[in-house]
Amino acid sequence: MSLKAQISEGMKNAMRAKDSVRLGAIRLLLSAIKQREVDERIELSDADVIGVIEKMLKQRRHSIVAYESANRTDLADIEKFEVTVLQTYLPQQLNEAEISALLEKVVTETGASATKDMSKVMAAIKPLVVGVADMGKISGLIKARLS
Fold first, then answer.
1. Which pTM does this prediction carry?
2. d(Cα 24, Cα 55) in Å, to the nearest integer?
């Protein structure tokens, strides 16, 4: 079953359970997917859907920080719940050890030795971790490793 079909099934389950908060989050996701399909006039693959989910997660995380700095915990809690709903549709995330091993392998393969080589490492590692690791976290680890 495709990821888009799984999300649609999740929406149906939320409707049956009368879980309006979860239903709202899933509808936002389906809306973003449909908008991208209409804009680009394509049918999104699972990798493209994962990209949409990651973009939405990034937006939610920025909103959480903004709401918490403004002492709006009620709005931050809504965003946090949406993050948990969105994360259920992502593949299993890599753990720290797997990320470190992959990073070491890519650094060795690219011959990177200084911070100036960071873009080379990012370009090589991105296709390997898209959807299974946070790129912001990866970027920090690469920077720390090459410093």
1. 0.81
2. 17
- Residuewise pLDDT in 10s, the chain (147 residues): 899 999 999 999 999 999 999 999 999 999 999 999 999 999 999 989 999 999 999 999 999 999 999 999 999 999 999 999 999 999 888 898 999 999 999 999 999 888 898 999 999 999 888 888 888 889 999 999 888
Domains in the chain: how many in total? 2
Alpha-carbon gap, residue 49 to 44, rounded angstroms: 6
Domain of 108, in residue numbers: 96-146
CATH number, domain of 25, equals 1.10.1510.10
Instruction: Give the CATH number for residue 127.
Output: 1.10.10.410
Residues 7 and 37 in one domain: yes
